[in-house]
Amino acid sequence: MKTCAGQRGFSLIGILLSAVIVSILLVMALQTYQPVLTGMQTGTGPTNSVGMNMSRVRMRSLQQAEAMYYAVHREYGTWDQLVADEQIPRGYSPHAGGPGTPFVPCHDIDIQVTRNGFVITATPNTEAGAPEGSLVLRLDQTGQIEEVQAE
C-alpha cells in the first residue's frame, strides 16, 4: 500500500474491526445485566428493586432519628416517641398499607427498643407492592443492615 508523504490515519478495515469488537462486547454486557436492569426499573427484583433501595435509605434516616432522640433523652425511642419528638414528620405511617404516607414504601416498620439499643425491622408487605421474595431488613444501633429471607 502506497501512502503519500505526511498522510496519517486509520484504515477503514481497522475502524470496522474495532466497531465489530465493541458491538460484540456491548451485546454480551447487556445480556449479563438485563435481569438487574429490569428488576431495578420495574421494582420486581427482590434485592435490587427501587423499593428495596428506598427502604435501605429510609432505614438509615430512622437510625439517624434514633441517634438524635438518644442524644436528647439518653434512651432510644419507639415510633410514637420519635414522632412526638418530631424526629419523624407527622403523617407518616409505619405500615405500608395503612393510613397516612408510608415511611418505607412496600415495607412495614417495627422498632424494638432494648435496654442497650434498638432494632428496626422492615418487613415486606406484598399488598402494598413489595415483590414476592423480598427480603426482611434489620438495622440496629451499630448501623449494619442485615437482609434475611421473609418467613
Word description of this protein:
This protein has 151 residues and is of the alpha+beta class. It has two domains: 10-42; 50-149, no CATH class. Helices cover 40% and strands 19% of the residues. The protein contains three helices and six strands, in the order αααββββββ. The chain has helices at 12-42, 50-73, 79-84, and strands at 92-93, 101-102, 107-113, 118-124, 135-140, 145-149. The strands form two sheets. A four-stranded antiparallel sheet has the order 3-4-5-6, covered by helices on one side. The protein has a two-stranded parallel sheet with strand order 1-2. A hairpin with a 4-residue loop joins strand 3 and strand 4. The chain is elongated and about 85 Å long.
What are the defining features of this structure?
151 residues; alpha+beta; two-stranded parallel ribbon; 3 helices; 2 domains; elongated
Quickly describe the structure.
The longest helix is centred in the N-terminal third of the chain and has 31 residues, at 12-42.
SSE blueprint and pairings:
Layout (H helix, E strand, L loop, with lengths): L11 H31 L7 H24 L5 H6 L7 E2 L7 E2 L4 E7 L4 E7 L10 E6 L4 E5 L2
Parallel strand pairs: 1-2
Antiparallel strand pairs: 3-4, 4-5, 5-6
The share of residues in extended strands comes to 15-25%
Helix and strand string, N-terminal first?
HHHEEEEEE
Q: So what's the overall shape? A: elongated
Q: Helix amount, in percent?
A: 40-55%
Number of separate strands: 6
Report the structural category: alpha+beta
Mean pLDDT across every amino acid position? 79
Poorly predicted runs are: 40-46
Number of helices: 3
Global Rg: 25 Å
- Adjacency order of strands in the biggest sheet: 3-4-5-6
